[in-house]
Amino acid sequence: MSDTTPQPQPHTADLDLDPLFTTTCTYPSSYPLTYPDTYTILPDTTLPDTYTTLPPTYPAIPPTYTPSLNLLHLLKTAATVSSGLVLDNGPGNPVESIPYKELLNGALQRARSFALCMALETSASKIVLLHVNNHRDSILYFWTILAAGGIPCISFELPQDLTARGKHILHLQSLLKWPIIITTEELLPEFCGLEGSNVLTTAAIETGPFNHPSSDVGPGFVKTADDTTVLMLATGGDGKAKAICLTSGQIVAAIKGKLEMHRTGKTDIFLAWSYFDHVSHLVEIHLHAVYLCAIQVLFPVDITIAKPSLLLEALERYHVSYTYIPNFFLKEMVAVLEKHDKLKESPFHPENKVYDFSNLKAVITQGTLGTETINNKAIELLSKHGAPAKFLRPGFGMTEFCGPANLIGKPINAVTIRIVDEDYYPVPFGESGMLEMSGPCVFTTYYNDPDRTTRMFTKDGWFRTGDLARIDDQGQIVLDGRYEERFTVRGKCFHPQDIEIAIRAQNIPGIDDEGIVVFSFCPKECVGAHWVNEVEKLKPENLVVMYETSFRHAFTQLSLDVEHRITGTVLEMCGIMPYKVLGVEGEMLPRTLKNRISNLLVKKAFLRGQLRKRSDGWHC
């Protein structure tokens, strides 16, 4: 591997000249785009200024993509240029450069490993669970598995609890039909003691022996754009992993929609720091950059989370123009910038550093409810350091349609959306309904789970996202929460996210903003539970608010003040007292396999009596 870091080229695009971003009422605007000849220019579609004539689907006529090549052909094309990966391993560590040509050659060589080839020949499913813990191995072996003709399934971090870990691995083995597992020597002990596991280490693959190549390409090149290319793991409502089948055609359609929406090009510098198992890294950054033959910088996850200021420095140092930052970390970056700017104003501050974010074209973030305040603060602070107007782009995305598929309420040209009521009739403008999606970037099946696939698709082939949404008077798509989590109090419908937002707005000391959960339950859901008395059984609906707190004990005066303020907020908003307000110390609320708090899992733990009251508070 070369130690010479490719020199990124500064991006100087003036977004204010782009008609796509100078209007918030018309989508899509007719605008000229100039791309290389290898890109397909989609037909313009202009909607009337009066949105009352808009048909129930939005946009009305989705473009048709006809990708004929798989992902390996994209990498082979990228290998003809000098761009590639830049692996920054943090302060004090050397920066490693891996050109796309070297990445392709390395993948093709490892794909000829005798051990890997034999494993794939005897595997009925050809699925390979890739379980590694660094960017280099994740990307290299993702392409290795593709080149060898396998289907990579990118694993996420296994649970620390040994019992939960064993259950998770056994579930994956059953779900993926006993896949081949590729891991490192360091992580190999996590799979010890599991019968029937076909585990290969990266060291065993790299030391050979190797098959003699019959051609200069691997067997993976013969796959079509419609074949399953990769399985992405996500957590289902039952808390177990589900595997989403994505094809090369769906991924390429999503990338084309993203590059047209964000006007990315080969001179842009991409940066990723999240885990490779997340669609925001795989599609939004890595494959997006490969498609454009652009430079992509990889920054370590653990170092980034431990010290957010290092990511700010990386954005400046590499002249980054495109990256993804989730809401929770955007909040951390805002806190760092606020502290930095406050110290900079002091005459005693040793340095007067001003960041230069003038090359920052797009920061993709989550367009979830309650993020407007932190988003506006991020825009204000980064703009002081040269970030251009409209660089922050909230998006709604799921792995099922290859990541963020809309920008500030407007979908990319690879999806069509519709909003329907419970009888599946289109709802009028301004009214909330169930959000459904269709289009060339939307997946079509969950692997080895036909029942879930049937439940999640309508009879006419639309994917049920499970979200509630509406189209406002400006033609923007507005999310209104999850359909399954809404509840009715005294005839009025509420969404848990609205109450959670109202509680966060109180800025109550000691509460983690990301650790607030609101859910409702009917007494019939917990018949026989000893903690529901006869009076409570008469109530038609009960609200529970749970929050993670830094307080050491749940019965201090501070915690009682928190409970009083939360109760007042719920009473003012809903007109009823919450059944319970419970604080748990630290990160004790149930989380998904990807370490996200799930309202549904918290509710299930509560109803099952898995929350226990002790002298020092409530515990799961």
From TrEMBL:
Q: Where is the AMP-dependent synthetase/ligase domain?
A: 100-447
Annotated Gene3D superfamilies: 3.30.300.30, N-terminal domain of ligase-like (3.40.50.12780)
Pfam families in the cross-refs: AMP-binding
The Gene Ontology terms for molecular function here are:
very long-chain fatty acid-CoA ligase activity
Provide the GO biological process annotations.
Answer: fatty acid biosynthetic process
Which region is the signal sequence?
A: none
Name it.
Putative Polyketide synthase PksJ
